[in-house]
């Protein structure tokens, strides 16, 4: 995991705060809803925050054979993960609200991610400002957020900054530099995907 706050990845930090990482991995391999629900609730009772996120995702995406999606329970567990202090949770929770087209709640969640120093959520917050979803459209604010996420190592943010610079600049040299930056970020993406495919540098 790679988006680093200081010298430590945000995701690495949260993973190593988990009380039972082996149990969390085992729960993630469970295929049926009832089994996963029981495993995650047991881990939650032990203090696992990431299990709240995973349980919420199960409720959101629960198969019809198991009763179908339960958005109310999904939101409850997503919000509990946020309230417990997780930065990593802000990305899936924000996406939960985006899928519900509740852009204001999505913005508020991504803003929490920004405050907690999580680059993928900062990138998504910038996207909301760029598109004017849940907030007044503001390209300057969007670009500032993209740049912040890029400085934290997020590859998608680096590409976004490069594309925006190319589009907004009339300077040929700057356009060439932007093109080079995109090429370098593509190479970085391939390397990172090979080295750490689950890295937060690759998340958007």
TrEMBL record:
Pfam families, per database record: Sel1
SMART domains (alphabetical): SEL1
Listed SUPFAM superfamilies: HCP-like (SSF81901)
Superkingdom of the organism of origin: Bacteria
Residues spanning the signal sequence: none
Name the record gives this protein: Sel1 repeat-containing protein
Organism: Paraburkholderia tuberum
């Amino acid at each position: 995991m790679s988006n680093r706050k200081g010298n430590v990845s945000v995701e690495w930090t949260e993973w190593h705060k988990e009380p039972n990482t082996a149990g969390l991995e085992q729960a993630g391999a469970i295929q049926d809803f009832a089994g996963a629900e029981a495993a995650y609730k047991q881990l939650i009772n032990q203090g696992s925050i990431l299990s709240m996120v995973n349980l919420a995702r199960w409720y959101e995406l629960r198969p019809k054979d198991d009763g179908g999606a339960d958005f109310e329970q999904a939101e409850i567990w997503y919000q509990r993960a946020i309230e417990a202090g997780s930065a990593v949770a802000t990305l899936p929770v924000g996406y939960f609200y985006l899928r519900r087209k509740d852009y204001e709640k999505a913005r508020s969640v991504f803003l929490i991610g920004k405050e907690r120093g999580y680059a993928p959520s900062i990138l998504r917050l910038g996207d909301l400002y760029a598109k004017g979803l849940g907030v007044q459209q503001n390209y300057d604010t969007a670009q500032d957020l993209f740049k912040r996420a890029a400085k934290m190592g997020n590859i998608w943010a680096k590409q976004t900054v490069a594309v925006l610079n190319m589009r907004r600049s009339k300077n040929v040299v700057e356009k060439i530099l932007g093109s080079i930056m995109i090429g370098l970020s593509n190479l970085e993406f391939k390397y990172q995907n090979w080295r750490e495919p689950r890295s937060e540098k690759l998340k958007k």
